Amino acid sequence: MSFREEHELHGRRKGRNIGVGLTLAAFIVIVFGLTVVKVTRGDFEPPRGQQVEGN
Amino acid sequence: MSDATINTTVNQPEAGFGDYVALLKPRVMSLVVFTAAVGLLAAPVAVHPFIAFCAILFIAIGAGASGALNMWWDADIDRVMKRTARRPVPAGKVTAQEALALGATLSVMAVVMLWLATNWVAAAILAFTIFFYAVVYTMWLKRWTPQNIVIGGASGAFPPMIGWAVATGGVSVESVLMFALIFMWTPPHFWSLALFMNSDYQKAGVPMLTVTHGRRVTRNHIFCYTLLLAALAIGAGFTAIGGPIYLAVAVVLNAMFVLGAWRIWRRDEACADADGFATEKKFFRLSLLYLFAHFGAILAEAALRPWGLGGW
């Protein structure tokens, strides 16, 4: 248990760190969500014509 | 962390998270979010809800980033004006360099992410919007010509076009009409603000029309632009974005708007000073309702279309 009083500056830094952390977490969720949506819709599959040429 | 760290940094600006959010001009972002969402939802192509959400988010971040770049460049005049003196940079909470770094980083991120999430047309219009607001308006027009907000208003008018491009992958008459609506609305909106905030612009040396040509000329301009806006807004009611709901809203609100502009036009300065610019302030508030109602009506027409009710 700490007996030292927290400086107001530390409170502000803590708030900023939490904010940045949550923003980064949200960004990861968004990129993951976009990937899931695009993969399930088949956005990353090559067009049919290309597939035939490839084979 | 040691006490020494506290003592060495306490006199330097130490921003909280909210100060960085304030750099993104959240109130302007709300207008961008709304108009971009209307552009996206009014388009005849359905977009996956999660992609639509992400697209609106990236458009909002792009708009916010251009706001941060604006605060970086305009820190000197923001410090002088009462209306902007409490912004994070002039208030000493965030350094101008931090605003530049945040604005530049978020600009690139928003454009790239919008491209990856949707298509290059939407991303290209967003990139152009950021460039237009941060460079053409903020760095060039704002301190150079009294037509600053007329031309610069284009940057605020692009979001519905971006929303439309997210859905359709292109530009069409409908999206250009939505652009034109905001573009023509901007001058009367900002000039009415300038009428009662004139001293701010004068102190900062910003060549607003009220500063360079006086309030009388500004009143004339407000009335002229409002008449042109009314013709455009009501005319749009007979196009693909319009319908009975839109037309009803447009007729009522444009009648009120033209009446407000006429009241502003016929007033002299003694009259305005006497009541503390009450008519001008009322017109400014009405202009906010005006834009939200028009875009709300466009959205209503699009939402009712699947049931055969919206549009003509």
In words, what does this structure look like?
The complex is a heterodimer of chains A (55) and B (312). Chain A is mostly helical and 55 residues long. Chain A is 75% helix and 0% strand. Chain A has helices at residues 8-41, 48-54. The longest helix of chain A has 34 residues, at 8-41. The termini of chain A are far apart. The mean pLDDT of chain A is 83. Chain B has 312 residues and is an all-alpha fold. Chain B contains 16 helices and no strands. Mean pLDDT of chain B is 93; it is low at 1-10. At the A-B interface, helix 1 of A face helix 2 and helix 4 of B.
Task: Identify low-pLDDT runs of chain B.
Answer: 1-10
Structurally, the number of domains of chain B stands at 2
Please tell me what the overall shape of chain B is: flat
Q: What is the overall silhouette of chain A?
A: rod-shaped
Average pLDDT figure of chain A: 83
Give a concise summary.
By secondary structure, chain A is an all-alpha fold.
Features:
heterodimer; A: 55 residues; mainly alpha; B: mainly alpha; Tetracycline Repressor, domain 2; flat; disordered N terminus
In terms of topology, how is this protein built?
The complex is a heterodimer of chains A (about 55) and B (about 300).
Chain A: H1 8-41, H2 48-54
Chain B: H1 3-9, H2 17-23, H3 26-42, H4 49-73, H5 75-80, H6 96-117, H7 120-141, H8 148-157, H9 159-168, H10 173-196, H11 198-204, H12 209-212, H13 214-236, H14 244-266, H15 269-274, H16 278-304
Helix pairs in contact in B: 3-4, 3-9, 3-16, 4-6, 4-7, 4-9, 6-7, 7-8, 7-9, 8-10, 9-10, 10-13, 10-16, 13-14, 14-16
Organism (chain A): Lutimaribacter pacificus
Protein name (chain A): Cytochrome C oxidase assembly protein
Keywords (chain A): Membrane, Transmembrane, Transmembrane helix
